[in-house]
Amino acid sequence: xxxxxxxxxxxxxxxxxxxxxxxxxxxxxxxxxxxxxxxxxxxxxxxxxxxxxxxxxxxxxxxxxxxxxxxxxxxxxxxxxxxxxxxxxxxxxxxxxxxxxxxxxxxxxxxxxxxxxxxxxxxxxxxxxxxxxxxxxxxxxxxxxxxxxxxxxxxxxxxxxxxxxxxxxxxxxxxxxxxxxxxxxxxxxxxxxxxxxxxxxxxxxxxxxxxxxxxxxxxxxxxxxxxxxxxxxxxxxxxxxxxxxxxxxxxxxx
Length: 254
Prior knowledge:
Radius of gyration: 17 Å
Number of strands: 8
Oligomer: single chain
């Protein structure tokens, strides 16, 4: 099994396909198993690397470090695989790790696609005020209502159940996750020179498209892709749309 012992913990990862390496980083409600649609669609064109963050999926967290070690763990996995430069598709919580990695090791990042997230970005004050309103409005929603859009909830009860069951293999939830990651201003992130894009579900209640668009405008040349009929987990809710648009973006290198 593809495990890496790192300090006192054991990190789980998978590698599928061949081609340019793309690392998929999951959110709090996910783990390596969440990306099955992307593995099937992309393994013919990319080397797809899945990494369970410590305390998620099959990765352990003996040190109880949580987010504080996510980036260091990622470095250890990529070094073990001898991957010197990769692209990231980072959903929700995963964006915090990808952004931290990009700011610390910009030469190792070909592209950074931030999916349904602003985690890891220190928001300009006016946008931060709007995000605080969103967080207040969504605080009492159920987990399904938070992470899946109204279209998916109405039309796909079985897949909704699968989503929640996959999350059930994680040690941590949004309420129990420990550790702190740094965040960076748009200016600090842009200064890395890393190619950046954003994708957001049009029904995302946690990171609404308008707010994501406002942040995207702080990055010159950054592309914003909106996925119709999807919420916070666009990669899972509308995989055909997500896979086609993101793959096209990843394949385009300036």
